[in-house]
Each structure stands twice: as C-alpha cells, then as structure tokens.
Amino acid sequence: xxxxxxxxxxxxxxxxxxxxxxxxxxxxxxxxxxxxxxxxxxxxxxxxxxxxxxxxxxxxxxxxxxxxxxxxxxxxxxxxxxxxxxxxxxxxxxxxxxxxxxxxxxxxxxxxxxxxxxxxxxxxxxxxxxxxxxxxxxxxxxxxxxxxxxxxxxxxxxxxxxxxxxxxxxxxxxxxxxxxxxxxxxxxxxxxxxxxxxxxxxxxxxxxxxxxxxxxxxxxxxxxxxxxxxxxxxxxxxxxxxxxxxxxxxxxxxxxxxxxxxxxxxxxxxxxxxxxxxxxxxxxxxxxxxxxxxxxxxxxxxxxxxxxxxxxxxxxxxxxxxxxxxxxxxxxxxxxxxxxxxxxxxxxxxxxxxxxxxxxxxxxxxxxxxxxxxxxxxxxxxxxxxxxxxxxxxxxxxxxxxxxxxxxxxxxxxxxxxxxxxxxxxxxxxxxxxxxxxxxxxxxxxxxxxxxxxxxxxxxxx
Length: 462
Description:
By secondary structure, this protein is an alpha+beta fold. It is built from ten helices and 18 strands. The protein has three domains: about 1-70 and about 265-440; about 70-100 and about 220-265, no CATH class; about 105-215, no CATH class. Helix 2 (about 25-65) packs antiparallel against helix 9 (about 390-450), helix 5 (about 270-290) crosses helix 7 and helix 7 crosses helix 8. The model has no long low-confidence stretch (mean pLDDT about 90).
C-alpha cells in the first residue's frame, strides 16, 4: 500500500488532480466496459431464447412422430386390477380372469434360542438347483441371518422373536423369504454342508418339527377370452403383466371370481390439451422475441430512446418469420386454422381448444396427420436455429462470445496502459514537489545570504 501526502510543498491536491486526469484517460476503457455489459445482456437473452427453441424442437419431434398426438386412458372394472399405459398403446377393450397372484417363496424355521449345530452350516438351493453353502460366525440366529444375507443368494433372512423357552431364554425363528416373487424364486434350505446335501443326509429346514413353508413361490396367472376356444393363459413372476397388450401394463392384486374388463380408450381432452401445450411453447417464443424487439421512444426533450435487445437483429427476425410460416402455412391445401390454430392480424398465435376438439372428434386421423405435418415443419425450423453445432442462433451466440472476449482483451490492455499512466503522473507530481522543495530551499538560502550582507547605510556611518 503506497503512502501519498498531497501538496506538502505546492499545496496542490495531487490525488484529486491525478484522479481527474485518469478519469479522462479511462474514457475509452469505460466505453469498452459498457459495450461488454450490453453484449452480455444480449448473450443472456440469446441463450434463454436458444434454450426455449431447443425445447420446442424436442417437443415438435415427439409431436411429429407417428401417434405423437395420441393420448389414451386405461381403466378396469375392478379396483384389484390397475392399468398403466406406455408409448405404443392403442385402443382396446377385453375381459381378463385372474386365477392367482404371485407369491414370494417363504420358509420359517422352528423356534430355538440358538442354532442346534455348531459350527452353523446351511446350504441354500435355488429353483435351478444351484447350491450355496453358508457358515455363520456363531450359533446366534441373528448371525445366521446376517450370513445368509451376506451370501447374496436372492434370499432375505430375518431373525424373528418367538417368545421364550421354559428357562426364560428368548427364542427366535429364522424367516427366509425370496427377494423375487414367482416360481423362479423358489428355494430350499438344508441344515448341513454341500457334501451332506449331495449325499442326502442333510435335513430340509422346512420339514423340521415347528418349521413350515409359509408361502410357495408362485407365478401370477390370468386368462384372456376365458371359457372360449381362444382362451389364452398368461403368467408372470410378479403381479404386473408387462405389455399384456402393446404399451399396456396390467397389475393385479387379488384373484377375480368373475371377468374384469380392461379398457384403453382415446382421451380426446388430453389430446387437445397436449396440442395446446405445444402451441404454448411457440407462443412463449414469439412473446420473448416481440418483447425483446420493442423500442421505447423518447416522449420528450432530454429523454432517450431505448432499443430492445433484439431490435434490428436479422437472425431473431428470421427465426420468428420462419416459425410463423411453419405453423400457419397450409398442409396439402388444408389450413391449420381449420383446427383452431391461427394467427391474427398482429401476428399473435392463438389456439382454439374447443374448435380443435370438435375437429378431432369428426376426423381424428386427418387432424392427427395435419398436426404432425405442422410439428415436423416446426421441428425442422427450430433445429436449424438451435442445433448445438451449426444452428443459426448458436452461431449468433458464439459470435457474441468472440466479440466479448476480444473486448475483454482490449480492456486488459487498457488496464495496463492506465496503470502505467497513473504511475507516470504520480512520479511527475512527486518530482514537482521535490523541485519546488529544492527551489524553496534555494530561495530561503539566497534570502538569508542577502540579509546577511552589510547595508550601504551602515558603511557611511563608519
């Protein structure tokens, strides 16, 4: 930190003088900073707009795909049957009969305070016949459960309190449950090692006195067209039948004593809403562009005219025009306005959901084809502007970034020059003080010498 004492000799406020001079020298640097700030504001708006156009391109791509406008609802006539829809679903209605639901294989051992064998060795055998030997650290039922879980055999073991024995010692049952339901999750547990199991001398834990198979691993089963020559039996390891019909998943929770009707129907309201949301993306982009292109004209003398961030930007103007053309031009001679998509005399895009729903109800295929064609044009236009490699908006942003970088480098050079100039001024004024000090010293010396000379009057009196 430098120490500055203003005008010790001259009486000048040198700090203020230097600051005033530096403010004049820094005018070009100040103008550069203002220019960078303006361009950063433009870049922020361009990036926000580019993101919106990218989102529009993604939505348009989905809408342009076959069935992109399709919306369906899935229902069943029973609370025990749930219907979930995915891409590819189509209208269907049929009856199913649920014969059984899936169960996870579960075995519970006899109650004991500790495992009867030491060392405690068990062998688990899965539905494919694969065997895994497990040995616990102690005969504690908790340690045995932990050893089974650590073996990662697809069986979850838990030591469950089962009261106390005659001596008052707490006893436990070992509950073993398959992590996955269905027949493929069935297993057997033997008290003994692999050799004993192979020799047939190991004991099946579930057959010991007080033990039991609580649930046998079972696949869920339902029938389509039950009781007819076309009856079809379908099984699933879980209670969800994935793709029972294309794009339709059915989950069952209880057995049905009578047929349950599963229905997938067209959801006209959802289709109209989805179309309206797509148009809203376009409307939002148009609003952003229009607001950013407005200029505030000076209302009186002394006031300034303020330009919008997009005012005079040919790229942005071209984007708006291209999107407007894509959304409003006819498709095979049919205008989008016939289905409620129109632009007024001021260029404002509107969507008449009621008119769209009516057209959809009369001819869903024609409306779907028209909307897909419009969406395809919008997708093509949006992609050409927002593509992350060669999009026109992307290039515009890249150009702005290059300009800001160049201006920043100019500012750095100005900072160096200004620092050098300030140092030069400080040295100059410091030298000025030194010179004035020297001159004052010389003046004082000369004055003292003159005062010491004998006067002419004193000479005449002698």
